[in-house]
Amino acid sequence: MAQPPTPRGRKRSAAAENAVLAAAYDLLATEGLQATTVEAIAQRAKVSKATIYKWWPNRAAVIMSAFLREARDALPYPEQLDMTSIFDRLHRMAQEFHGPIGNMVRVLIAEGQSDPEIAEAFREGYVLARRKQGVEIVHAAIAAGLIRDADPDVILDMLYAPLYYRLLVGHQPLSAAFIREHVTLALNGLTPRAH
């Protein structure tokens, strides 16, 4: 049996990868998106630009990798769609949106309007990747009879869009009182009707 081909190039160094992602995240959080260049990331991480380009195809991919590493833990989905779980997770999300994660989401969405690479990286790496997990949770809730049978994408939009709207527009605060009223209204609409 033929052996699989040996991958070209050196294996990623975990220390160097962590340094690159930490540098990108730190630059994004403190200096902003425009300052988060491959040159600046390489300088801060003490690696060459060639090393970064060997592992990531472009600046957007590095930035999204750094953002996603932080956001995965900071913005988890609830385990199931019940009042307590949804309130807890959306409240945690609102709190995270008051800090660096929220600033980054704002910047990445804004920059994505004029930079197709950033838009695609944000959509594919963050929004659509997370939605796969969310759709599974919605399907499980429908199967368990916790919520009415409806389009999972519409349900996720209904639950999450108000937080992004307040984050981006800033017309009202992302407060615990807002989250509680929003979750209550949303779940009242999703609760199966008695026959």
Descriptive overview:
It is a single chain. By secondary structure, the protein is mainly alpha-helical. The chain folds into two domains: 14-66, Arc Repressor Mutant, subunit A (Orthogonal Bundle); 75-190, Tetracycline Repressor, domain 2. Helix content is 70%, strand content 0%. It has nine helices and no strands. Helix 4 (59-74) packs parallel to helix 7. The chain is elongated, with a radius of gyration of 20 Å. Mean pLDDT is 87; it is low at 1-9.
The domain tally reads 2
CATH topology of the largest domain: Tetracycline Repressor, domain 2
Largest sheet: none
At the first level of CATH, the class of the largest domain is Mainly Alpha
CATH architecture of the largest domain: Orthogonal Bundle
Amino- and carboxy-terminal Cα gap: 63 Å
Listing every helix as H and every strand as E from the N terminus to the C terminus, the arrangement reads HHHHHHHHH
Rounded average pLDDT: 87
Query: CATH H level of the largest domain: which superfamily?
Result: Tetracycline Repressor, domain 2
The computed structural class is mainly alpha
Total strand count, please? Answer: 0
Q: What's the helical proportion of residues?
A: over 70%
- Radius of gyration, CA atoms, in whole angstroms: 20 Å
How many helical stretches?
9
The dominant shape is elongated
Weakly predicted, low-confidence segments: 1-9
Strand portion: under 5%
Keywords: DNA-binding, Transcription, Transcription regulation
DNA-binding region: 37-56
Organism: Bosea thiooxidans
Protein name: Transcriptional regulator, TetR family
